[in-house]
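Appendix C: a fully annotated inverse folding record. The material below is reproduced so that readers can follow the format used throughout the book. The structure is listed first as tokens, followed by the designed sequence.
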């Protein structure tokens, strides 16, 4: 019924993961232990947030035997309660994430009523007390012809691999950014399969302040911390909501596009900005468009969303319409844009056909120099503009 009324759902790049996250099993150390060393388990490794691959279009996964020298026999042999009670801040624990089960593989791990191949992500960045083991592993992988892809991955991977990569990168980045408690400044411990961090009440190391010290023989009480009281006693991964919008003129015949100074010549995109606290998505769309372009909006409709793992954004795509008389462009409010202009639908349609690319990449064959250029099809901006020229704002629903 919903598809008949609103049309086919739009799945943007970095979404559409084949994995069932089974988030309710992340606290089950027996499940995680079984998943860790199952023969069908795959590990996606990252070095400084760069994923392991053979080439830009093909991620490389390794087995438990490959990572065992770094992570040990069984990282999940103990319950979370035991790990917290035995916490030692002087010991570097490689950051391990449980990503989910690929249920397409019926020969994978079976646990209760769930069957699939387990997927993990592992940070092998040499640091702390694991420098030597991490470097050895990296050198072994390089001898196999593998490498860690540097820079942002925006279009080179197949869609499902891109979704797995996005989940892994965003969570590894969050863990790396939060090694200390925001309340008391003491080191935190990763739990819940890498999806939460906690501030342990005791430490097996004798600490002076937040870091350093000598290994103690008994746990030392740490300073009191507000995170150990009440229901907000854990640190959760953050997702920053961002609005990105295709703005249509009041008569529905033109689209508002803008460009930043650093972008290639003739390259434009839709407008975008962060959602602020206590602000609805619709309000954020109207505010950002007015701040950046001076254009006044009326109706705002959410079209689709896109995870963006740089570092942890959720792009909320919207299509909005300008109110009559509110189409004058004024760039004196927010200096973010170098230029903004209204483009006829036919110009946008032609740019979508031959003028799309990633930043710094050439346009497709058939593009004429000087014509409009737009983001590649893997960008939600492209999907929003395609929806507009495809009749989204026509008389019949096109969501």
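Designed amino acids, in order:
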């Amino acid at each position: 019924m919903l598809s008949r009324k609103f049309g086919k759902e739009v799945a943007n790049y970095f979404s559409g993961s084949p994995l069932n996250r089974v988030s309710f099993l992340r606290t089950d150390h027996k499940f995680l232990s079984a998943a860790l060393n199952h023969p069908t388990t795959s590990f996606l490794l990252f070095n400084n947030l760069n994923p392991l691959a053979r080439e830009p279009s093909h991620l490389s996964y390794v087995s438990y035997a490959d990572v065992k020298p770094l992570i040990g026999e069984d990282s999940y042999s103990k319950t979370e309660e035991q790990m917290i009670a035995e916490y030692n801040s002087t010991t570097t624990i490689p950051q391990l994430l449980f990503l989910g089960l690929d249920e397409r593989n019926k020969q994978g791990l079976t646990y209760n009523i769930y069957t699939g191949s387990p997927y993990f992500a592992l940070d092998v960045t040499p640091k702390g007390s694991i420098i030597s083991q991490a470097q050895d592993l990296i050198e072994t992988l390089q001898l196999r012809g593998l490498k860690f892809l540097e820079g942002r991955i925006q279009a080179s991977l197949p869609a499902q691999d891109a979704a797995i990569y996005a989940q892994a990168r965003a969570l590894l980045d969050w863990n790396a950014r939060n090694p200390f408690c925001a309340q008391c400044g003491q080191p935190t411990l990763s739990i819940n399969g890498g999806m939460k961090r906690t501030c342990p009440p005791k430490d097996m190391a004798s600490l002076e302040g937040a870091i350093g010290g000598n290994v103690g023989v008994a746990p030392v009480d740490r300073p009191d911390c507000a995170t150990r009281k009440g229901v907000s006693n854990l640190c959760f991964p953050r997702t920053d909501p961002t609005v990105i919008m295709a703005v249509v003129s009041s008569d529905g015949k033109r689209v508002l596009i803008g460009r930043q100074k650093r972008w290639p010549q003739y390259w434009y995109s839709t407008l975008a900005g962060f959602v602020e606290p206590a602000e609805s998505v619709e309000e954020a769309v109207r505010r950002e468009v007015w701040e950046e372009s001076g254009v006044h909006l009326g109706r705002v409709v959410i079209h689709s969303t896109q995870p963006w793992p740089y570092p942890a954004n959720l792009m909320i795509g919207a299509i909005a319409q300008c109110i009559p008389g509110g189409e004058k462009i004024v760039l004196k409010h927010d200096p973010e844009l170098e230029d903004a202009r209204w483009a006829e639908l036919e110009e946008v349609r032609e740019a979508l056909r031959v003028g799309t690319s990633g930043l710094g990449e050439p346009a497709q064959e058939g593009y004429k120099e000087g014509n409009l250029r737009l983001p590649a099809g893997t960008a939600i901006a492209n999907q929003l503009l395609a929806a507009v020229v495809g009749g989204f704002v026509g008389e019949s629903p096109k969501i």
